[in-house]
Design brief:
Layout lengths: L5 H11 L10 H20 L11 H15 L1 H7 L10 H4 L10 H9 L16 H11 L2 E2 L3 H17 L4 E3 L2 E2 L2 E2 L8 E4 L2 E13 L5 E9 L3 E3 L3 H10 L4 E3 L20 E8 L4 H6 L3 E7 L3 H4 L14 E9 L4 H11 L9 E2 L5 E2 L4 E3 L2 H13 L5 E4 L4 E4 L3
Antiparallel strand pairs: 1-8, 2-9, 3-4, 5-6, 5-9, 6-7, 7-8, 10-11, 10-12, 11-15, 13-14, 16-17
Helix pairs in contact: 2-3
Amino acid sequence: MTDLDLDELRAELDDFAQPEKKGGRSAREERIIAGFEEIQRFVDQHGRAPQHGEGNDIFERLYAVRLDRLRSLEECRALLNPLDRQGLFTGDGAATVAVTEAIDDDELLAEMQGAAGATDITELRHVRSAAEKRAAEEIANRQKCEDFDTFKPLFKALERDLDTGVRITRQIRKDAGFLKTDIKQGEFFILGGQIAYVAEVGEWFKAPNGENDARLRVIYSNGTESDLLLRSLQRALYKDDASRRISEPSAGPLFSGESSEDDLASGTIYVLRSKSDHPIVVQHREVLHKIGVTGGDVERRIANAKLDPTFLLADVEIFATYKLSNINRTKLENLIHRIFDTARLNIEIKDRFGNPVIPREWFLVPFSVVDEAIERIKDGSIKSYKYDQQQARLIRIRT
């Protein structure tokens, strides 16, 4: 038997060697994960799952189609469930996108290319949707509100009420081609991206179709007004898929022990501490907290914390939880984060692909202050306080 030299031996062995599987995942699995992470970044930015509809941005619609496909494939669900920190495959998040949309090639091409001569995919020329055209026609009938200064305090107070949860926005009921809602003086609505205030309701009269109607004075948050008919406002609210009714301040406390058919979904505020060995975390562990809101189970939410940059790629400890109902979870979470924004942790870590990530939900705040803030959110008094980082406590705002 002839001895093989080292080069020949290496060549022989190379023929039998199996290619190493990088990171334990196939190229297809990595593409699926990368596509899902794009959807997760959209949800982080917008506070909701991507939605279908011709009035939405083309990229949001593409993400919505992609999410539907990921949900429909068992292979994808099994791969992505451990990474699903936003409940997109379970609970309320999974129901956000309900109807699969088929985007035809011509429409996609028109959106992506814009006008002839565009040289880069980022240079999209805006193509107006049908909803935007309807909004433009409605706006065209508005005029400048000469006494808008009279109404400014109302809009500012409304903004504070929405921020603190004293008021909430509710989807307008629509059925059988007409709007199932009354319109009264003093009410607020969201129409065409603007807040609309019904300042006056004129005398009632019979319309040609036999319905009761009235001339309105409607003031908009951009300083314009219109004198459209009540039935015209109803039709405009019906045609605008994003229209909302803004509740009265007396609609109930931020956290409610009772529920009704109009209640928003319940959930949980959670306060976590990290078990990371990162030097900054170790130094401030007693006052470093992650504060979030979820509609699902907190234990499930943190099950894969050590794989998720949001959790600093480390296990966490559940330090406190608060049950809630009749609340918009996204707005509540945004409110809590705004209160403690000055104490937000500034730290950069690497995800599993080596990309830099800056987690945004960790705050250097004593737990006692977090607990006080949540109690003040409950009773509505938080609007009179702000967090003072130097004193590490909530202080009353001077008015």
